[in-house]
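[Meeting: bench + compute handoff]

Bench side (C.D.) handed over the final construct sequence. Compute side (W.E.) agreed to return the predicted structure before the next meeting so the bench team could plan truncations. Sequence as handed over:
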Amino acid sequence: MAKLNALTDSRMIRALYKASQAGVKIDLIVRGTCCLRPGVPGVSERIRVRSIVGRFLEHSRIYYFMNSSGEEKLYLASADWMERNLDRRVEIAFPVENKRQIRRVKRDLELYFTDNQQSWELLADGRYVRQQPEEGQPAINVQQALFEELST
């Protein structure tokens, strides 16, 4: 899983496609520009992309990885996956090593995929479809939920 503001770097996109083709499930939250196309058969069918634009302009970049033996790695970073950030700037990424903190950030990342108020899913054809609660499902606004949690 990753949360970032932009994904435009062609090498990173090819690496994500290759991982999807190898069977890796990839969940991305990309607030702004995303040049990757999720859900393309044989290319990116294991990739899901959501954009959440709400009250708060978020700038966190979070990269969560889990290997086949269940080992988790979590990084917080300053860089989006763009050519300018990866090739021409000095950016920082640092590991989160505390298991409790990893669980907390992973839970928050997963919560973003439950948002059905301010979430837009990117389709294979490049269109975004707004997510809405299904019949009988509660309305979930992830930004509001996290704000309320931090306020208590």
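W.E. noted at the follow-up: Helices lie at 10-21, 83-87, 99-112, 142-151. C.D. will use this when planning the next construct.
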